[in-house]
Amino acid sequence: MHCTMSMPHSAESARERGRAVLFDNYARFPLRPVRGEGTYVYDEAGRKYLDFTSGIGVLSLGHVPDAVAARLKRQLATLWHTSNVFESPLQEAVAARLVRASFADRVLFVNSGTEANEAAIKLVRRYARDVRGIEGGTIVAFERSFHGRTMGALSATGQPALHDGFGPMLPGFRFLPYNDTASLQAIDAGTIAVILELVQGEGGVTPADESWVQALVARARAHQALIVVDEVQTGMGRTGTLFAYQQYGFEPDVMTLAKGLGSGFPIGALLAKEAVARVFTPGTHGSTFGGGALAMAAAEAVLTIIDDPAFLAHVRQKGEALLGGLRSLASGHPDVGVRGRGLLLGLSFPEGARRYVDLLREEGVLVLTAGTNVMRILPPLTVSDEEIAAFLDALDRVLQKRAAEKARPGER
User: How many CB atoms within 10 Å of residue 230?
Assistant: First the structure.
């Protein structure tokens, strides 16, 4: 699996041409994938990499899964787009499956996670006005949260560095410390909703404490505040149940989905209970491409596979195996932390994680960062025991190199 990072002149020229025409808003890794298959991706030179990024949690079934590809091919030959001015049997079928599998009564399809969260913000504000008689009000969110890049979703994101240069943010948001029970007293009669991730992905792969979630739910219910769960990254089996909230003993009022629902095809969804959903009457919200035929075909194929008890049991088993392996490796490196749920896992490094992400890439393994100090590990839900073992072997070599460097200060 080991690969070198040398680059032919032609590849370097292609990269420079790309830099000349694309916006420079991504700090891209020096890798140009051109083909994917299962848990592996291949670059222009044919080098093979074990992909434990899943396209930031999107490729739940790996690269180009047969069932999704076959369903999309059938759809490509029949219907691509009609828009939401017409009824959609495909939307109805996928929505019905999501309703059966969740707390929700209604589903609205959009194109991405940030769109789903944007719609959720509009929904809870309209509900507050129509049902509670509150114009505006406060939405409580949490420090280090991430809900998207559009202005509404960004305003709900508790990372000030991401706000830089885009102010003023939309008013009406208040940020509380994550996993801090005492701060929940700030949820009061003026709070119209609480929005949270049950594992903060971009914020450092930090799971919510179960006791804190129960306290949050009780406080929100006491003040009639809606509970919005952002499951853009945790949903669709990523944490071992179809939705992460199912592990915390409560039902939200609103939930957002994206990423793994489309297996690489752009999609988002807003789910809500009937009493909340009914405030979106005709003309209040819409999306030209939301719920298009191709997105629905992909989602239908994904749900057929993931919404299955045996498949979810497989995810839990693989998550436990990977978590156990990470803990075993980290036990020899006391300053390395392990956290996460299911197959959304992280390793924390006090000196920063990027160097070790780069070293793993040199070993032929792809992972991500989550903030500065955390390595984010997101294999496909279909990952095998052999692939987990290969990843752990490569990580062990990187950790051993780190330990050797720490023993020789100045030689890094």
Answer: 31
68-306 adopts what CATH topology? Answer: Aspartate Aminotransferase; domain 2 (3.40.640)
Distance from chain centroid for Cα 289: 21
Intervals of CATH 3.40.640.10 along the chain: 68-306
The pLDDT of residue 10 is 62
pLDDT of amino acid 14: 67
Note whether 198 and 227 are within 8 A (CB). Answer: no
| pTM for this predicted structure | 0.93
The DSSP code for 319 is: H
* Cα 174–chain centre separation: 22
Mean local confidence (pLDDT), 45-66: 96
Cβ neighbours, 10 Å, residue 96: 11
- The Cβ-side half-sphere exposure at 8, using a 13 Å CA radius, reads 9
Decide if 256 contacts 120 (C-beta within 8 A).
Answer: yes
Cβ neighbours of residue 328 closer than 8 Å, sequence gap 6 or more = none
User: Residue 19 — very low, low, confident or very high, per pLDDT cuts 50/70/90?
Assistant: confident
Mean pLDDT of the chain: 95
297-319 confidence digits (pLDDT tens): 999 999 999 999 999 999 999 99
CB 292 within 8 A of CB 280: no
Question: Could you tell me if 360 and 367 are in contact, meaning their C-beta atoms sit under 8 angstroms apart?
Answer: yes
